[in-house]
Amino acid sequence: MENASLRDARSLYERIRAATEGDGTFYVFLDEIQYVNGFSDVVNGLMHRPNLDVHVTGSNSRFLSSDILTELRGRGDEVRVRPLAFSEYLPAHGGSPSEAWADYVTFGSMPLILSGPDDEMKASYLQLLFAKVCLPDI
Q1: Could you tell me which residues are beta bridge partners of residue 56?
Q2: Cα-flanking dihedrals φ and ψ of residue 19, to 5°?
Q3: Can you give the pTM of this predicted structure?
Q4: How far apart (Å, rounded) are the C-alpha atoms in residues 98 and 104?
Q5: What backbone torsions phi and psi does residue 118 show, to the nearest 5 degrees?
Q6: CA angle, 94 then 97 then 100, to 5°
Q7: Domain map of the chain by residue range?
Q8: pLDDT 10s digits, 57-82
Q9: Which of 2, 17, 44, 48 has the smallest number of CB atoms closer than 10 Å to its CB?
């Protein structure tokens, strides 16, 4: 609730503008920007400032990458983030190739799976991911 006012486009823009005054480059990360009404005005305004490097994310089916690029009038680049390929997973796993493969096919290839200390924690993470990302978008 303490940041609820930042869902207003003008408030968000003014807060970022005030925090990025001065010399040097500022990196602005706007996560889940689809919750801000009029977000495209905020992002487009920030992109005109030469000392800002703006990154925008969204994880909602109503906020597709094609919609973002349309809203930003072609002034952005799309970076797709995908789960790990087995060739990436294997060296990070630390076990034998057969152990890594068993984990990979059982729990999938989301990077956070590699930090799970046991099977129960990995399963809990996947259940949480499904409940927070998949179900709301279906």
Answers
A1: 30
A2: -80, -10
A3: 0.60
A4: 10
A5: -150, 170
A6: 60
A7: 4-71, 86-137
A8: 766 655 555 556 666 665 666 667 78
A9: 2
